Model the fold of this input.
Amino acid sequence: MNIVIAPDSFKGSASAKEIAGFIKNGILTVDPSTNCMSLPISDGGEGFCDAMLAISGGERFSMQVVGADGHQQDASWAKLLDGTAIIELAQASGHISSYQDLNAMSTTTYGTGELIHAAIESGSRNIIVGLGGSASTDGGMGLLQALGISFKDKAGRELGYGGGELANLHEIDITGLDPQVKECEFIVACDVNNPLTGQNGAAEIFGPQKGATPEMVNELDNNLANFAIKARPFVEQDLSALPGAGAAGGTCFGLMVFCGAAMKRGIDVILDKANFEDLLKDADLVITGEGCIDEQTIFGKAPIGVALRVKEAFPQLPVIAVCGYKGPGAEKVLNYGVDEIVEINTSISKNCAMKKVKELTERAAAKIMTKFVKKEVIVLPL
Done:
C-alpha cells in the first residue's frame, strides 16, 4: 500500500516535517510494509523554506535582521540548488511570541527586505517570497525601505517603521532602489485572497490578530489606502483591489507595485516544485492536515490546495485531513476535495493536546490506517 503524507505544520506544536513523521509512525504500527511518501508542505508561511529545501535541496543562510518589533533578531533565507532564493517573511517579520507585546501601528517588514537584499547580493535573480505569519500591516513599506526606496512626509523626512507612519506619507522616491532589483523575477507565495483595503482588507481582517484595536484597524486601513494612492503613479493599473494584495499586511501589494512580483498560491509553489501529481500515480491514500481546520481553511490553505490537486488528477483517490482542532465551519472542506476530517483530540483541553501532539497524531494515524485497511468509513463527530 502506498500513502502520500502531505501535512502543513500544527502551529505552536510541531513542524510540518514532524507531523509527517508522526503520521508515518502511526501508519507503520498497523502495517509496517506500507510505503509512506512524506511531503511536508507550507502555504507560504511558517516552514516555507524547510519545505522548499526538502524538495529541491540547497543551503540555508542565517543573519541578523530588524524584527517586526524593530529590534535585531536572527533570521534565515535559503538558496536552492538551481539558484532560486526562498524568502520566508515569517522568519524576519513574524516570529513574535505574543502580539500583545506589540504596537500594531509600528510593526515592520524591514527585516524581510534585508533577507531579499542578501539574496540578491549573493547572485540570486529568481526570488520566491513566502507571505504568511506576518506581524505587521505596513503594506511592505519596511521591506521596500530596506531595498532602497524612500518614503517621505511633507517635510521630506523619511518615515519610521510601521503602518501607522503611512498616514504621513507624502512622497515615494524610488531613485535609491537597488538597481539589481530590476534584474530579478519575484513570485509572492500567499494563501489569502484579501484586497489591500476595505471590509475584507488587510487591516480589517487580520489587524485584530496582530494586536490592533478597532480604532487602530480603521487608521491602518486609511493609511494603506493613502499608500495605494501615492503608489498609483508607479504602476499601470491600480493593484490594491486585486485578490491577494492584502496578504501579509499588504506586503504583497508593495512587492507587486515596486518589484513587479507575480502572485501564486503558496501551496501550488510547493506542489509544483515537488511534481506532486507524479507522487500520486501509485498512491492508495493521501493524508494532509494542519493545526486547525475551520471555515477559513477553504480560502487557499494548504490542505485544500492538496485536496483539490489530488481530485483534479485522480478523482477517486481518497483524501483525509488530520487536524489538532476542528473549528466552526470545518465541514465546508468536504466540498473541496477532502473526504474525511480526523481531529486528533476530542477529549482533552487544547493546551494539553498541543503538548501531546506526537502521541495524539500517531494514535489518529493508526486509527485511520486500521479503518482504511478494513475498508470502513471513518465516522466523524459533528
Summary: The mean pLDDT is 93. The radius of gyration is 21 Å. The longest helix spans residues 214-231.
